[in-house]
């Protein structure tokens, strides 16, 4: 079974500031012993982007927006059901 969850950062992030993505709490049902669970970030390439940003900068007093997108290294880890 495969499913996707979309997470949105609820507020803007200041330039140069560190931030943590919102936490997810998932209720999962284990498969058979020996099966694996592999959470991944979405995105596999330029035709299937996994993250997008809309940065805004102020230039001579005028706010200017742009866009940025990319794809991360998708695998977060693997858990084997025992």
Query: Describe the biggest sheet?
Result: 2 strands, antiparallel
- Structural class designation: mainly beta
Q: Compute the number of strand runs.
A: 6
Name the overall outline. elongated
| Percentage of residues assigned to helices | under 10%
How many whole angstroms does the radius of gyration measure? 17 Å
Q: Tell me the β content.
A: 15-25%
* SSE string, helices as H and strands as E: EEEEEE
- What value does the average pLDDT take? 77
- How many H/I helices? 0
Q: Which sequence of strands runs across the widest sheet?
A: 1-6
Low-confidence stretches: none
Distance linking N and C termini: 19 Å
What does this structure look like?
- The structure is a single chain.
- The chain has strands at residues 36-37, 51-53, 56-59, 62-65, 68-70, 79-80.
- The protein is mainly β.
- The protein has a domain at 45-80.
- Strands 1-6 form a two-stranded antiparallel sheet.
- The protein is elongated, with a radius of gyration of 17 Å.
């Amino acid at each position: 079974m495969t499913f996707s969850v979309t997470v949105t950062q609820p507020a803007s992030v200041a330039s140069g500031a560190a931030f943590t993505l919102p936490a997810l709490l998932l209720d999962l049902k284990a498969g058979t012993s020996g099966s694996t669970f592999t959470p991944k970030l979405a995105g596999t390439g330029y035709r299937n982007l996994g993250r997008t940003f809309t940065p805004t900068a102020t230039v001579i007093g005028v706010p200017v927006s742009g866009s940025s997108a990319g794809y991360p290294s998708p695998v977060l880890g693997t858990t084997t059901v025992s």
